[in-house]
């Protein structure tokens, strides 16, 4: 990467696939939701004469500069070495991770928000990040909100779930023992309860993974219901025998990221459950549905109706049972569906949706980083 030697941004991340400057590999990052924004950010900074390297590369002495700013993806095992041992300036700390996964980071936000000039986090974290940093709302960087052309309503199957089989919640959990799955599940669940009880903030005790399993258990035999995603072909922690059987019956395989919208366009509805309920925690899941011309059945951010118009999705909280939900989905007429889909298209073309684009996200981060350099000049 060519850049002026006097200005450098260190991308502080310790996720192994992204280290050794692989975070700037466009082909690799396209495989991870939201990650392409880092490639675009590096290019935007390069155009302004600023280089970008990952933290491990910088600390190995491969790259250096007279002026160095740190962009942290949460707080990592490299952060103290960068900020305190090397004395670098913490310009921006950002997180697009669920607080149910990154709960240690969220629990310590009062301290961490004094290490940086700016914090870019989901809105629910504002009350936790009470240090000296300026707080900015994180909005998911969706690459392209242009609506796709789905199949006609009559040609579509009823309902899909497209989601990875999440079994990692950000705390130590016992290894799954294939020889003794019931005992493993029991240990996993007791561990979940113990850790949740220790969390001070009630939003960080709100995980929706088991609700997703409940949906699969109830809908696994429903005609027109299909399950997609990575990992569902493996034993599932927290799933009893009946739920595992429903998973096996409905699972249709993994979908490459670039095919997700096309697959969703073959269904009328999608169960769109976030990993947790947290104010402002809205990820790519609902945008995949809206872009695909699929009506999302949403559960997640409690303030979702203030973010996405209520007419553009179905609120799962409005139903008391899965049979009630299924009946409503099956009885929806094509004209009713057209109103939902029209509301979604109007939203995608609006200024309110623009802040959920990759371009907006890159513009925000680049402005913050460059302003930190200018303040030092």
The CATH topology of the largest domain is given as Rossmann fold
Rg on CA atoms, Å:
22 Å
- Taking the alpha carbons of the first and last residues, their distance comes to 23 Å
Oligomeric category: single chain
Tertiary shape: elongated
Helix and strand composition category? alpha/beta
Strand content of the residues, in percent?
5-15%
How are the strands of the biggest sheet laid out side by side?
2-1-3-4-5-6
**How many structural domains does the protein architecture include?**
2
User: What is the CATH homology-level superfamily of the largest domain?
Assistant: Glycogen Phosphorylase B
CATH class of the largest domain: Alpha Beta
Overall pLDDT, averaged? Answer: 88
Helix content: 25-40%
Describe this structure in words.
- 37% of the residues lie in helices and 15% in strands.
- It is an alpha/beta fold and 377 residues long.
- The strands form two sheets. A six-stranded parallel beta sheet has the order 2-1-3-4-5-6, with helices on both faces.
- The two termini are 23 Å apart.
- Residues 168-197 have low confidence and may be disordered.
Features:
15% strand; elongated; 377 residues; 15 helices; 5-stranded parallel β-sheet; 6-stranded parallel β-sheet; Rossmann fold; 2 domains; 11 strands; alpha/beta
Describe the protein's topology.
Layout: E1 7-12, H1 26-29, H2 36-47, E2 51-54, H3 55-59, E3 67-73, H4 79-85, E4 89-94, H5 103-107, H6 109-112, E5 118-121, E6 134-137, E7 157-162, H7 181-198, H8 209-219, E8 225-228, H9 241-250, H10 260-264, E9 267-273, H11 284-292, E10 295-299, E11 314-315, H12 322-331, H13 334-348, H14 351-354, H15 358-376
Parallel strand pairs: 1-2, 1-3, 3-4, 4-5, 5-6, 7-8, 7-9, 9-10, 10-11
Helix pairs in contact: 2-15, 8-9
């Amino acid at each position: 990467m060519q850049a002026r030697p006097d200005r450098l941004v260190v991308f502080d991340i310790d996720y192994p696939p992204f280290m050794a400057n692989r975070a700037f590999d466009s082909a690799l990052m396209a495989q991870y939701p939201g990650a392409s924004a880092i490639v675009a950010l590096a290019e935007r900074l390069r155009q302004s004469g600023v280089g970008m390297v990952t933290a491990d590369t910088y600390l190995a002495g491969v790259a250096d500069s007279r002026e160095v700013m740190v962009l942290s993806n949460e707080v990592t095992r490299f952060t103290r070495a960068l900020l305190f041992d090397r004395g670098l300036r913490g310009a921006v700390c950002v997180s697009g991770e669920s607080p149910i996964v990154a709960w240690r980071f969220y629990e310590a936000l009062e301290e961490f928000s004094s290490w940086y000039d700016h914090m870019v986090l989901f809105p629910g974290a504002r009350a936790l990040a009470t240090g000296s940093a300026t707080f900015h709302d994180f909005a998911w960087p969706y690459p392209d909100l242009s609506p796709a052309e789905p199949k006609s309503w009559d040609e579509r199957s009823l309902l899909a779930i497209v989601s990875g089989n999440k079994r990692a919640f950000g705390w130590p959990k016992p290894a799954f023992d294939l020889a003794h799955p019931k005992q493993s599940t029991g240990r996993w669940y007791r561990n979940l309860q113990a850790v949740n009880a220790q969390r001070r903030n009630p939003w960080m005790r709100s995980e929706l993974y088991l609700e997703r399993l409940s949906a699969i258990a109830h809908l696994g035999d429903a005609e027109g219901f299909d399950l997609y995603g990575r990992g569902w072909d493996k034993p599932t922690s927290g799933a009893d025998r009946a739920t595992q059987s429903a998973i096996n019956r409905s699972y249709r395989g993994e979908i490459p990221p670039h095919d997700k919208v096309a697959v969703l366009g073959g269904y009328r509805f999608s169960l769109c459950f976030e990993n947790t309920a947290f104010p402002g925690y809205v990820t790519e899941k609902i945008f995949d549905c809206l872009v695909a011309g699929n009506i999302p059945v949403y559960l997640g951010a409690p303030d979702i109706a203030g973010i996405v118009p209520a007419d553009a999705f179905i609120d799962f909280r409005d139903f008391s049972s899965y049979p009630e939900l299924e009946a409503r989905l099956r009885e929806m007429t094509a004209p009713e569906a057209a109103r939902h889909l029209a509301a979604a298209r109007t939203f995608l073309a609006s200024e309110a949706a623009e802040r959920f684009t990759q371009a907006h996200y890159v513009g925000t981060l680049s402005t913050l980083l460059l302003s930190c350099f200018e303040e030092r000049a």
